[in-house]
Amino acid sequence: MGKFIGALDQGTTSTRFIVFDHGGRIAGQDQKEHEQIFPRPGWVEHNPMEIWGNTQEVIRGGLLKAGLRGRDLAAIGITNQRETTVVWNRHTGEPYGNAIVWQCTRTEDICRALMKDGGQDRFRETTGLPIAAYFSGPKIKWILAHVPGARTAALKGDALFGTMETWVIWWLTGGPGKGAHVTDVTNASRTMLMDLKTLAWDDHILEILDIPPEMLPGIVPSSDEAFWGLTAHDGPFEEKIPVCGAVGDQQAALVGQACFEKGEAKNTYGTGCFLLLNTGQKPVTSKHGLITTVAYQVSGQEPVYALEGSIAMAGALVQWFRDNLGLIKTAPDIEELAGTVEDNGGMFIVPAFSGLFAPYWRDDARGVMVGLTRYIHKGHMARAVLEACAYQTRDILEAMNKEAGQELPHLKVDGGMVENNLLMQIQADVLNVPVIRPRIAETTALGAAYAAGLAVGFWSSQEELRQNWSEDRSWQPNLLEEKRAAGYSSWKRAVEKTFGWAQ
Fold first, then answer.
1. 124-158 pLDDT, tens per residue?
2. Tens-place pLDDT, residues 390-403
3. 379/43 Cα distance (integer angstroms)
4. CA triplet 232, 188, 15: central angle to 5 degrees?
5. Which of these, 250, 279, 249, lies nearest to 267 by C-alpha position?
6. Quick one: CA torsion of 167, 169, 171, 177, rounded to 10 degrees?
């Protein structure tokens, strides 16, 4: 068996390949960004063929930088941007248009029509999800209705649907005529089409959305001993390596943070922000605007569930501040700029650029800046950007504490933004709990590696994975309660200003 595990992290803005050793340390990695396509306001697309090309490039690059060959890998795991939807031809591999990204709002009309009969929670009991443009089901319906040839091909069994891990696994294991057409339970639980309890596609919802079941992938465990296939020689590997682990990115971070016990939680600061709480082997239906989702499943075992709070704009807000406003040159510059002021000067930014996700679920919300005076300068704006990430996280945590009936004692954090020490201190202050960063910050890719490694016996148990986890740094709350309460009260008022803007 190889002495390393390969993890492909197919994210919203880039694709990375990271090679991990047995201690969960990084041996080598490579990364490549892909184009963000905005054909109309609120629409977001990716080119699936560009992503498959980048996937091959970063796998070769990651191995080269680690000084390794494919034969040195025991298995491959995949983690991915969830909900992003691609439909392609099973015989040619050609997509029926670009992938529709999770952030895209084009399916709002479809969602509103679905809500007319049964409201936003029409499918929540079955799927754990509210009806929202975020999820894959309405995106499939849109593609079948608007892309020439897609519905005809789907009815003939020639068109396949997948989220991004499905697309990548299909190509890695041989593509046309050979590729495994599978989705793991965590990604399937984000389609709005899967029954959370049976872990099967729900025929009733498929009928309502008019989606032919023939186009759907088989649902498999996140860590699967009966691996889905071996890498094909015409892909990025010359050797045949088991492809046997897949976990949606946010659930992967929960696994990478070793949150295997009920009551453990983590928050990932990436393009969006995602707080997950392990709720054990029973799905908990949320009464406070959270999503019920599958956290992970190891083959032969019952699935583990989680409550999730999803925030659309976190790192993406920093990108907007950099690219659209041009107020910083690189994303990390925001920490220095925000550090030039003591506070936000009374201004707040609520980044409801494509509506608000949890716990509000308002498609009609749009972004606002409030509290502007002539005193405000770009330093205050930079601080307000960081505070928006922290306050949105508090909205989620308030809901989670109500749901769980207990206060979270601390918050484990990961993702690209946790290198921003000022943001981490703001987060501790806003939440009034310690914030803990792990030694290995690449927890999403690590979670995918763990899923694959457990499947082939590279790691023997979850306990062994837990021993790999260690703290890098923590931040303690350091803000007067009076200031904390006043800041959060102003934030809530600012959020209300976003409601009802998009008619």
1. 999 999 999 989 999 999 999 999 999 999 999 99
2. 999 999 999 988 88
3. 30
4. 50
5. 250
6. -100
Q: Is 320 exposed, middle or buried (0-12, 13-18, 19+ CB in 10 A)?
A: middle
H helix intervals, 264-377: 315-323, 333-338
- Pairing mode, if any, of strands 182-184 and 218-220? parallel
Would you state the structure tokens that stand for residue 454, as one six-digit string?
Answer: 């457990």
Buried b (16+ CB within 10 A) or exposed e, 211-234: bbeebbbebbbbbbeebbbbbbee
454: helix, coil or strand?
A: helix
Which tokens belong to 407? 């206060």
At 246, is the secondary structure helix, strand, or coil?
strand
Residues in contact with 364: Cβ distance below 8 Å, sequence separation at least 6, in sequence order: 355, 499, 500, 501, 502, 503
Cα angle for residues 342, 344, 345 (degrees, 5° grid)? 90
Q: What is the pLDDT of residue 456?
A: 94
Ramachandran quadrant class, 280 (left: phi over 0; alpha: psi -120 to 50; beta: rest): left
At position 314, the amino acid (one-letter code) is A
Element (H, E) at 474: strand 471-475
pLDDT category at 363 given cuts 50, 70, 90 is confident
The letter for the amino acid at 248 is G
What does residue 163 show for φ and ψ, rounded to 5 degrees? Answer: -80, 180
Give the integer Cα–Cα distance in Å for 123 and 292.
Answer: 12
Question: Which tokens go with 89?
Answer: 């031809």
pLDDT digits (tens, 9 = 90+) for 283-303: 988 888 898 999 999 999 999
pTM for this predicted structure? 0.86
Cβ atoms 293, 310 nearer than 8 A: no
Three-state secondary structure call for residue 34: coil
What secondary structure does DSSP assign to 402-447, as a single string?
HHHTS--S-EEEESGGGG-HHHHHHHHHHHTS-EEEES---HHHHH
Distances (CA, A) of 91 to 96, 158, 214: 13, 7, 14
Query: Are the beta carbons of 286 and 267 closer than 8 angstroms?
Result: no
Pairing of strands 291-296, 304-311: antiparallel
